[in-house]
Structure formats: structure tokens, C-alpha cells
Amino acid sequence: MPVIEPAVLVPVVAVAALYLRGWMTVSRRMPVRFGPHQAIAFLTGLGIVLLASSTLFDASGHRLLWAHMIQHMLLMLVAPPFLWMGAPVAPILLGLPRTVRGAVARGLAWRPIRWLSGLLTHPAISWIAFVVMFWGWHVPALYELALEADLWHHVEHACFLGAALLFWRPVILPWPARSPWPRWAMIPYLVLADLQNSVLAAIFTFSDRVIYPAYAAIPRTSGSALEDQALAGVIMWVPGSVLFFVPVLWLVVTALDPPRSIRAESAWSFDQLRRDAPARGSRSPRGS
Fold first, then answer.
1. Structural domain containing residue 258
2. Degrees (nearest 5) of the Cα angle 274, 122, 45?
3. 147, 148, 149, 150: CA torsion to nearest 10
4. Domain presence at residue 1
5. What is the pTM of this model?
6. Which residue in 77, 88, 159, 160 has a CA-CA distance of 20 to 30 Å to 135?
7. 283 within a domain of the structure (yes/no)
8. Are residues 27 and 182 in contact, defined by beta-carbon separation less than 8 angstroms?
């Protein structure tokens, strides 16, 4: 049975508890926008993070590059879209204790924090951060550092997940997020991301030398380090491209204008969610 380190398991369980606590409140206030499928999507995303961080992939990833590549794809291409589909901002904020919630809300409203969050969530910055982390941690020196030390391995995964969350945010655009770019711009945004993914995948697939010496030094009962590397490239190339293509297809076929019921519900200001929950007997979503 896969084992998950407490350094990963505890924060994930805490986030899940906060989300569910807040979701129970916000789903009563905004049932159209926050239905069961949002909670299922978010918990699925957390489950994928746990799976990617388990010994099932950690142990194999130290011996097989293709296993390590699947681990990276789960953290960068699979878990983040599911997490954003859960529209986690409002539920997590409401899940916090009231005193903490007020402090967090004031912190988010502080002008330097608003400026920094606006900068980091701009699609151009998000795309660049994703590509820099993607290529940076595949540089042999950094990659092998993460293989040798658990601390750096966790840092690597945190960088992957953080950059991927920034990258997928303007694509999923979870409520109450807004983007300075039109929705159609997300199509070239994803296509270009897939292109750079394909370039790195091709390097792994067609290289005639082992890029990471640590894998060449491992005794093998079957196959070679070069074959392992080529398989990792194919996994990155084919399933990776599919994971970029599916949201492109979704953007093409999905109506850009939300249903009226959701538009009407959106008129309720997000600032309302930052306040204390209404009394249990209140039926109005604007009650305080």
C-alpha cells in the first residue's frame, strides 16, 4: 500500500477540511455555483496530489525516469485543473475560523498584496513561471539534486504544483477570478505550452546519451537507462499533449457566456463571503 509522508499528508488533509467546512456554508448560499461536483473536483485534485507524492511514485522515480515523469505530470497537468474546478477560494476562506478569516481578508485587501497577486496571476507571468519551473527542474544539476535529497525533492514538487496552479488559473477561471485576457487567448496559451512540452519530450525521446547520470548508475534487470529515458519522453509527449489538447477542445466547444442563473448569483459580491456567516435561521444570502 502506498505510504504518504506526513509533510504532505497533513497539509492536504487540513486544506480538505477547510474546504469542506466552507463549502457546506457557501453551497447553501450559492447552490447553483457550488454544487457537489465542485467539492468532488477539489477532493479529486487533492487525491491526485497525494497519489503523486506517495511512495508508489517516489520509490519508482528514484530508479525509473518514466515513473518520475508520470509523477511530474500528475502534479503539473492533472491535479491543478481539478483543484481550480472546485472554485476553492471562497470555500477555503469561509472554512477558516472567524478571527483568522478577518485577518486573511484584510491581508488580501492590503494594496501591496493585491498588486503582487495581480502580478502573479497575470496570464503572461503564469505562463512564464510554468515554463521556467518546467525546464529549470529538468536541468541535470537540479534534477539530480532533487533525486539525492528529500528536502529538495519536496521543494521541486512544491515549485511544480505552485507554478501549475498559476498556469491553470486563467484557463479554468474559477469564481471569482477574472482575467485581463479574452477567453479565446487561452487557446494559443495552451498550444504554446504544449509546444515547449513537446520540445523537451523530443529531447528525452531521441537523445543518444543518458541525460541524468544517476539513472545510468542504477543496476537494472531489464532494459537500459537510455530506453527508460526514451519511454519517459514518449509519456511526456503523447499523454502530455492530450492533457493540453482536452482543455483547448473544451474552450472551443463551450459557450463563453455563463447560464443566467449563475450570472444572477454572481451579482452577490465576493466581499460578502469574507464576512461572518449569517445566523443559522437566516434564509437570505445577504443576511449578516
1. 7-270
2. 65
3. 50
4. no
5. 0.84
6. 88
7. no
8. no
